[in-house]
Specification:
Layout (H helix, E strand, L loop, with lengths): L1 E6 L6 H8 L2 H6 L4 E5 L2 E5 L3 H10 L4 E2 L2 E6 L14 H9 L3 E7 L15 H31 L4 H17 L7 H4 L5 H5 L9 E6 L10 H11 L3 E6 L1 H7 L4 H11 L5 H12 L2 E7 L4 E7 L4 H8 L1 H5 L1 E7 L1 H7 L2 H6 L3 E4 L10 E6 L2
Parallel strand pairs: 1-5, 1-6, 4-10, 6-7, 7-8
Antiparallel strand pairs: 2-3, 3-5, 9-10, 11-12, 11-13
Helix pairs in contact: 1-10, 5-6
Length: 365
């Protein structure tokens, strides 16, 4: 399951946003049900209208969307990398997520005091990024002290790791998130992944605005977008206050309210879509009388890998994948017609599964 950590300075709207995500009414009425695993962890199902179209066509009562886990990382402060506040604990939580959603205050409110006394999105972003970078540097320096001794013996793995650590330390000195694919070779990426560094994770800046600025944005949002352009990041404009209000409404009421505000989707939906885009993920579907279910895979995953997401036995014993494109299936209305028209294909182990593919795997145990 995809995990996204929500971070931010105190008083930027992060807690309001997370509380909206974890609202109990949300789980009963909205189209992205939520369950809370722990006080600071919750799972939201990923909105996908395709599943409900297929539900009617294959005549099932069960729909199981794929999901994203949100982890609320308590407000970071300057000095968190040195243990200020509960810094060490929070930083450990961030190391475990796939993507970071950084909530940035983009609203003026004299009743909500900013931690530094004034609203300045760039300063806020760089305060957080500096703390994450400093924590990563401290972690890498410890690793380097250990691995450099082994590297001197000529051990190939240690030499490779030591070179990677040296390069990472150099890149982190700029205090910027690192797109590792730009700077490192393919065989170096698994080594970096095992380091669980925060500054190598994809980041989305959630520009938190007032209700009146949700549709159009404001000068603060423009500032965040300019920063993101040069820092390998995505931006999503949200209003934590509106998300809290949406959580109290039924599905139809929520849709009407969003239309009145001039936006199509909730901030939660936009954050999920941005995370999928940033992590380059795809969804394939299994559909039958038992259930319609969505599964998440990385872009470029081949049929056996996709089968393994369902069950490891499917990957081990993979024979063939029976594939029908979503649009083709909807036009035909059934597997029978899709097969008659030659729109259902048998694909082998080298087939790259596409977003929206409806797949039935053939395997032998």
């Amino acid at each position: 399951m995809l995990r996204a950590g929500i971070v931010g300075l105190p008083n930027v709207g992060k807690s309001t946003l997370f509380n909206a995500l974890t609202s109990t009414s949300n789980a009963q009425s909205a189209n992205y049900p939520f369950c809370t695993i722990e006080p600071n962890i919750g799972v939201v199902t990923v909105p996908d209208e395709r599943l409900y179209v297929l539900k009617d066509l294959v005549k099932t009562d069960t729909v199981i969307p794929t999901a994203i886990e949100f982890v609320d990382i308590a407000g970071l402060v300057k000095g968190a990398s040195k243990g200020e506040g509960l810094g060490n604990q929070f930083l450990a939580n961030i190391r475990e997520v796939d993507a970071i959603i950084q909530v940035v205050r983009c609203f003026d409110d004299p009743n909500t005091i900013h931690v530094s006394g004034k609203v300045n999105p760039t300063d806020d972003i760089e305060t957080i990024n500096t703390e994450l970078a400093l924590a990563d540097i401290a972690s890498l320096e410890k690793r380097q002290a250990r691995v450099s001794k082994v590297a001197k013996t000529g051990d190939k793995e240690a030499v490779l790791e030591n070179n990677i650590v040296t390069k990472l330390l150099d890149l982190l000195s700029a205090g910027r998130f690192i797109n590792v694919k730009e700077h490192f070779k393919e065989d170096e990426l698994p080594v970096i992944k095992n380091m669980h560094l925060m500054m190598t994770k994809p980041v989305i800046y959630a520009a938190n605005v007032s209700e009146t600025d949700l549709a159009t944005g404001n000068a603060y949002v423009d500032e965040v977008r300019e920063y993101a352009k040069t820092h390998n990041a995505d931006v999503v404009v949200i209003s934590a206050k509106i998300e809290a209000e949406l959580a109290e409404l039924g599905e139809e009421e929520a849709k009407d309210y969003l239309q009145e505000l001039g936006v199509e989707n909730s901030g939660i939906e936009r954050m999920i879509k941005a995370a999928y885009h940033l992590l380059d993920l795809r969804t394939f579907i299994t559909a039958g009388e038992k259930e319609v279910r969505a599964w998440t895979i990385p872009a470029g995953a081949k049929a056996p890998q996709a089968a393994g997401v369902i069950h490891t036995d499917f990957e081990k014993g993979f024979i063939r994948a029976e594939v029908t494109g979503y649009d083709d299936f909807v036009k035909c209305g059934s597997y029978t017609v899709a097969k008659e028209k030659g729109l259902t294909r048998l694909e082998g182990k080298d087939y790259i599964v596409q977003d929206g593919d409806i797949v039935h795997f053939r395997f032998a145990v």
